[in-house]
Amino acid sequence: MAVVGGAYIGTNIVRAGDHNIATSLQQVNPIQLSSESNYYGKPGQDMLDEVTESFEAGKLSLQRGEGSGAAGTPNSIYEQAHQAAAEEAGIQYNGFQDANGNDVEGPVHGGKTIYYNRMKGKADNIIYIQYHQ
Q1: What's the pLDDT band for 125 if we cut at 50, 70, 90?
Q2: Can you tell me the distance from the alpha carbon of 99 to that of 132, in angstroms, rounded to the nearest whole number?
Q3: Which DSSP state fits 88?
Q4: Residue 28: which of 109, 85, 97 has the closest Cα?
Q5: Which of 14, 65, 93, 99 could form a disulfide with 110 if both were Cys (CB 3.0 to 4.6 A apart)?
Q6: Which residues contact 1 (CB under 8 A, 6 or more apart)?
Q7: 35-48: per-residue pLDDT in tens?
Q8: Residue 73 phi, psi dihedral angles, 5° rounding
Q9: Are 10 and 68 in contact (CB under 8 A)?
Q10: Can you state the angle between helices 45-64 and 30-39, rounded to 10 degrees?
Q11: 87 with 42: CB under 8 angstroms?
């Protein structure tokens, strides 16, 4: 499954001589990030958010002296890194539809999830559609 925007994958710490080195991993979809940033008139802002999120995660891991799992895993530093990162360009929404295109409350077999941006006075900007098998 493709990542929607970006995702914090985790941070590893390795010992190098007398100091530690952090390697922080972030998965991004540059096309989606660009679509969102451009829609809100802030080119590059969402990629900056993803890069600084990973940078902040690396700093936090070095301070703790240990690595971190991906967002959503126990003891992950994702939330702290996310809060310290540069702001996103704007809000991303999602909606769900069944196989016939009717709006539904959540993902359903044969349906789809639609990720989009919405701004007053502008048409919705669909940035990604995920189809459910």
Answers
A1: confident
A2: 9
A3: P
A4: 85
A5: 99
A6: 130
A7: 889 989 999 999 99
A8: -95, 160
A9: yes
A10: 120
A11: no
Beta bridge partners, 11, equal 24, 68
Mapped onto helix, strand or coil, the DSSP state of residue 39 is: helix
Output the CA–CA distances (angstroms, integers) from residue 12 to 30, 118, 125, in the order listed.
24, 37, 36
Element spanning 80, H or E = helix 78-84
pTM above 0.85, yes or no: no
1: exposed, middle or buried (C-beta count within 10 Å: 0-12, 13-18, 19+)? exposed
95, 108 contact by CB (below 8 A): no
Encoded amino acid at 21, one letter: I
Query: E strands of the chain, at which residues?
Result: 6-16, 19-28, 93-97, 103-104, 112-117, 125-131
